[in-house]
């Protein structure tokens, strides 16, 4: 079930595109229905107006007929007149008396067959008023048509009731509707195609911009200068990019404050450790000198012998102090990283050459283009230190063997440096990268701390695996250069 859900998951660009297409389609359907309804209404209004025009024309003709023939001769000649008018205007006419009885018609056969009633209903007679007409919807053979009723007058005298049926040309109307719908469909297809192209381009524009921001976010590193995104439009995406650029500025300030805090903390710890390391040889030196002074007073004859013994001891302690000073000087001389695109393979070869005469060193390389964004000299110092530590960790009865493996993964360059030394006991593993840790008999143990700082400064990480009496492997992961 989970797998099927994942396969059906749509990307943001697809969802935006489908949403826009659905909105466009719904809009077109609503507009189409509204347009069709408007067309139908206009068509109905057209037939209403046409019926009104026919009604006015018939009424004027009949009123002129009454004036010309007089009221007495009207009823005798009215039936002939309506046949004449019906033929001229191509309409049907029915004439009723003022009481609602059929007087004459151009549709006599329909009345004879009982399709139409020869008497008007009382409800209609009550509604009819002078100078007004009533339009009703009636049906014949299942087809609806309009039928107008009005009173024919001469002055204030009611003469007859005229009925004017108006049948719409259904075939013509159907052809008009079909033609209209076909034209509308063609226009809407073109609009839909145009809108779909615009929606596709717009969704791509939005998602490509978001992909650009996403790619920039993936490249953000706390240990390097992050480039802001250039954007000129003052829109919602522009606000998002401005927030991203502000975040970069705040990140850089935070990184500087963090680095400053870490440096201050490291130097405080270093000062404490240096004081401790210097104090260790000074104490026996002081005791030896005091002992020499007592010997000079109490046993002058033994002074020369004591000077030889104590002098040798003092020289050893001075050498220890000199070693401490050298290590601290090397650590303190670490300059600010000048990061650049660096070929790790080339740096490893340089480090190997420095120790080629001190033991067997083998480099195995897998793949190519092992480029990282780091300080080349710092990396050389780190690799040199690890190789040197590996060589020094090998007992005297063994031949030193250092194996280095280099490969590239999807996101990192991996360096593994293995030795065949004594390994690191479990109780010392947690202290391995501490500035004051060392497994050697002399020195401050700043080497691995320096290596860790260099790797971290390059945005990488370092770890190790060890087996007592078999050796140790240090693994360094450095992010691939994006340049």
Automatic annotation (TrEMBL):
The chain crosses the membrane at residues 16-39, 177-202. InterPro entries: HAMP_dom (IPR003660), HATPase_C_sf (IPR036890), HATPase_dom (IPR003594), His_kinase_dom (IPR005467), HisK_dim/P_dom (IPR003661), HisK_dim/P_sf (IPR036097), HssS/ArlS-like (IPR050398), Sig_transdc_His_kin-like_C (IPR004358). It comes from the Bacteria. It is a multi-pass membrane protein. It catalyses: ATP + protein L-histidine = ADP + protein N-phospho-L-histidine. Its main location: membrane. Gene3D superfamilies: 1.10.287.130, 6.10.340.10, Histidine kinase-like ATPase, C-terminal domain. Residues 273-482 form the Histidine kinase domain. GO terms for cellular component: plasma membrane. Keywords: ATP-binding, Cell membrane, Coiled coil, Kinase, Membrane, Nucleotide-binding, Phosphoprotein, Transferase, Transmembrane, Transmembrane helix, Two-component regulatory system. Its EC number is 2.7.13.3. Residues 204-256 form the HAMP domain. Residues 234-264 form a coiled coil. The keyword Cytoplasm does not apply. It is found in: Cell membrane. This is histidine kinase. It comes from Salibacter halophilus.
């Amino acid at each position: 079930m989970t797998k099927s859900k994942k396969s059906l998951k749509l990307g943001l660009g697809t969802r935006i595109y489908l949403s826009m297409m659905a909105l466009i389609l719904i809009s077109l359907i609503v507009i189409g229905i509204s347009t069709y309804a408007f067309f139908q209404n206009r068509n109905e209004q057209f037939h209403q107006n046409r019926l009104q025009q026919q009604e006015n024309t018939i009424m004027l003709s009949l009123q002129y007929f009454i004036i010309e023939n007089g009221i007495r001769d009207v009823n005798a000649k009215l039936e002939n007149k309506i046949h004449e008018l019906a033929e001229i205007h191509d309409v049907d006419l029915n004439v009723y008396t003022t009481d609602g009885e059929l007087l004459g018609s151009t549709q006599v056969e329909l009345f004879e067959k009982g399709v139409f009633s020869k008497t008007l209903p009382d409800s209609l007679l009550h509604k009819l008023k002078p100078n007004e007409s009533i339009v009703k919807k009636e049906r014949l053979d299942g087809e609806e048509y309009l039928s107008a009723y009005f009173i024919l007058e001469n002055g204030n005298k009611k003469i007859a009731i005229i009925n004017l049926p108006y049948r719409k040309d259904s075939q013509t109307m159907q052809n008009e509707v079909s033609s209209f719908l076909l034209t509308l469909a063609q226009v809407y297809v073109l609009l839909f195609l145009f809108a779909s192209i615009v929606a596709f381009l717009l969704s791509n524009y939005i998602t490509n911009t978001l992909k650009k921001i996403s790619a920039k976010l993936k490249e953000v590193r706390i240990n390097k200068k992050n480039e802001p995104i250039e954007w000129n439009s003052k829109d919602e995406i522009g606000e998002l990019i401005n927030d991203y650029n502000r975040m970069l500025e705040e990140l850089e300030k935070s990184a500087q404050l963090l680095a400053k805090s870490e440096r201050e903390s490291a130097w405080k710890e270093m000062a404490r450790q240096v004081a401790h390391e210097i104090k260790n040889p000074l104490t026996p030196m002081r005791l030896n000198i005091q002992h020499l002074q007592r010997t000079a007073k109490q046993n002058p004859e033994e002074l020369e012998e004591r000077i030889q013994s104590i002098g040798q001891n003092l020289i050893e302690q001075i050498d220890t102090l000199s070693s401490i000073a050298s290590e601290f000087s090397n650590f303190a001389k670490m300059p600010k990283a000048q990061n650049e695109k660096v070929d790790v393979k080339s740096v490893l070869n340089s480090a190997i050459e420095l120790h080629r005469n001190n033991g067997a060193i083998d480099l195995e390389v897998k793949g190519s283009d092992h480029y990282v964004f780091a300080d080349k000299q710092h990396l050389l110092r780190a690799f040199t230190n690890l190789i040197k530590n590996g060589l020094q960790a090998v007992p005297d009865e063994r031949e030193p063997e250092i194996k280095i493996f280099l490969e590239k993964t999807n996101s990192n360059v991996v360096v593994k440096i293995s030795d065949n030394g004594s390994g690191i006991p479990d109780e010392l593993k947690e202290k391995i990268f501490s500035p004051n840790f060392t497994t050697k008999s002399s020195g401050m143990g700043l080497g691995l701390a320096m290596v860790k700082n260099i790797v971290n400064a390059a945005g990488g990480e370092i770890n190790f695996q060890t087996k007592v009496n078999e050796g140790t492997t240090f693994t360094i992961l450095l992010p691939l250069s994006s340049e």
